[in-house]
Amino acid sequence: MKIATNKLSDLYEFYKTELLTVYEESELYAIFELVCEHYLSYTKTDTRLKFHENLNQSDVLKIYDTAKALKKGMPIQYIFGEADFYNLKFKVNSSTLIPRPETEELVDLIIKEHQTIKQETLNILDIGTGSGCIPITLKKHLPSAKVTGVDISEKALDVAKTNAKKNNVEVEFIKLNILDLSQILNLISKFSLIVSNPPYVLKLEATQMDNRVLDHEPHLALFVEDNDPIIFYKRIIDFCKSNLTEKGTLYFELNPLYASEVENYANDSNLFNFTELIKDMSGKQRFLKAQKK
After folding, report:
1. Angle between helices 8-19 and 57-71 (to 10 degrees)
2. Closest CA to 232 of 164, 168, 176, 293
């Protein structure tokens, strides 16, 4: 289908023709609003008020090409090369996961629980940092804290470093495989807060996932082997024995299917005064909080 004119309304008709087999119309219109915000700097109100106005050819081509990429299943965040997270902008690409709303909930929980304490006493470690959205956002809102992010992927760390500069914060990033004991022993710092959103999707769950995730997001950051679904949580809990300070706090984002298993492992470690499973906004057991003895 050709676009009839350069009017925004005709571009949206093109989007419906191309993409209504992929998205519900309400979702498609919300994506179209994001496209208009990204390329035209339009607010939602602008999009409505200027719906029948003509655009220049350069903007038409950008919006047209975005529709073609969306039809191939590419997530809108990868097309834009950025994602919103906790009112900040983050560069994302195929080396990093797209930040999820559940992770925003985790960050919000941590910020609210630590804004009133002496932040200079906070030494924060984020394990499996990806785009850096967790440590960068924590540093932005807890500016006196010392913050470190680690990841196994050099490419992800490059993105995280770019995002720290983009958001004007200082975060140290280190390449580290949390499953490699020899590497862990080299990280001798003690942290008062450890947070992680590690890989937690079972490979057998892949058949239930959207192809937009499977075909474009990094499997290294998504999937864990079916025979040991909580391996990352176990290694991080073990890591806390030597690297989490007394009264220090551990936070996890969880696969709800294995939340109880992670909590049981934490309790059996005898490291913590308490453990607490916390539900997300959907009512699923999504987070674990634990305080070391």
Report:
1. 10
2. 176
Residues with Cβ within 8 Å of 119's Cβ and at least 6 positions away in sequence, in order, are 142, 143, 144, 145
Question: What are the percentages of helix, strand and coil residues in the chain, rounded to 5?
Answer: 45, 20, 30
Alpha helix ranges (H) inside 167-227? 181-186, 211-214, 219-222
CA separation for the pair 94, 29 (Å, rounded): 25
Cβ–Cβ under 8 Å, residues 216 and 146: no
The DSSP secondary-structure symbol of 100 reads: P
pLDDT digit string (tens) for 51-77?
999 999 999 999 999 999 999 888 999
pTM of the model: 0.88
Q: How far is CA 264 from CA 18, 31, 212, 232, in A?
A: 49, 41, 34, 14
Question: Hey, what amino acid is at 5?
Answer: T
